[in-house]
Amino acid sequence: MAPAVSEPSLRDPAWTRRVFWTLAGAALLAPMLWATEFRPWILFEPASLRASLGFVAGFLPPHAEPGFLKMVAYEAWRTVAIATCGMVLALLLAIPLTLASTAVLSVSALPGRMHTLPFIARQAIRWLLILLRSVPELVWALVFVRVVGLGPTAGVLAIALTYSGMLGKVYAEILESGETHATTTLLRNGSGRLNAFLYGLLPTNGAELTSYTVYRWECAIRSSAVLGFVGAGGLGQQLITSLKMFNAAEVSTILLVFIALVWMADWASGQLRRVLG
Asked: For residues 272 and 277, what is the distance between their CA atoms, to the nearest angstrom?
């Protein structure tokens, strides 16, 4: 007769650690909620509900006057144009900054330790990327509205600066975290940095770079609408105008168009990933 097999314990051996980190997370989150005055129950108070329902009721029916729809369609197209032009300029800035800041492409680092001057130069470029992405595009837009005036030019420049910092930082991380053996071999055998990038790093990291670029283009479309709040053109500028006039029907139409715009951007980026992947 076979010996009886003892039934394994159902107790989680790591439960004390899980409970500890859960309580620690709650202890850290509590003062943050207090600092932000987070009181969601206010939304369900009678006065808040009356105000919310009254505002939402004005959304129906959406404003569908032909002249207004034509204007909204043009502003939607301009929103996409702002995002796309801003991304192109961001790429023109980000690509050379990425190549200059990527340690894998440094010839002086081949012996094992990068020389002092190249190291300082790369750190300076990385700090420049930090500066570019640390300033929100909304702040850049406010600056450029003062410089170049109201309109989409300010939005294009704002997206270009902020997104060049984001792209440069993530591009460098992708290139340095991928397979670098082919690149190092090319550099050791006398290849230039550009050829080492084109034939070593790019083939192994191209799909990830493309995916992140397309994702950032989607984000740029959303950002370009928000930039209109400070006069940088696009749907956002018309949206803030309608809000100031308390025209909820126009706001409803603009929001529906913006939702459709984001959906189309998501669909287009998905198709592009499928083609390039």
From this structure: 8
Compute, in degrees rounded to 10, the torsion defined by CA atoms 213, 215, 221, 226: -110
Domains in the chain, please, with CATH?
Answer: 67-276 (1.10.3720.10)
Cα–Cα distance for residue pair 164/135, rounded to 1 Å: 12
pLDDT in tens, 69-95: 888 888 888 888 988 999 999 999 998
User: CA dist 213 to 66, 120, 166, 269, Å?
Assistant: 36, 28, 10, 10
Output the pTM of the full model.
Answer: 0.76
What's the Cα-to-Cα distance from 26 to each of 12, 22, 29, 32, 155, rounded to whole Å?
Answer: 21, 6, 5, 10, 40
Residue given tokens 């470029």 in the structure block: 125
Instruction: Spell out the residues 6+ positions from residue 110 whose beta carbon is closer than 8 angstroms to its own.
Output: 184, 187, 188
